[in-house]
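Write out the 3D structure for:
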Amino acid sequence: IYVVGETTEAAVRNKLNLESEGSHCGSAESLAEHIIKQKSCSRVIFPASTLAKDNLQKPLESAGIKVERINCYETSENTELQKLMTNLDRYQVLVFFSPSGVDSAIKYISKEDLKTKKYVSIGETTKKALGKYVENVGCAKKPNPESLAQAIKEL
């Protein structure tokens, strides 16, 4: 079992009582490289969101690893999102965890807030999505609280 981050590693261990590897990778791209270097499998099952990017699947398939993607959940916008995003005055930094989160929330952020707030992403893919709308996006190198805190400090 391969995982991207420490939280998923803990869930696999605690809920499935199984060991995993790859938690040090921190991104789908890095995990794909890790799996390819292992040369230990010719086929993987990839449970994903319907909105998941192909940044894990493409490199694996290019390396000759068959990927069976299973869309096991659908990501949808919070029905209260617009209301929640209308008053951001008390926040200096906005943190985004996924490209779909950027796509959902960005339309509700005022032009002024796009210019004056600071933005941080969890991972390069989310940073790229944010970069379409704002400049100078901070990026947590790994999907964990310590890396996020460091990225905020570096703004």
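The chain has a mean pLDDT of 93.
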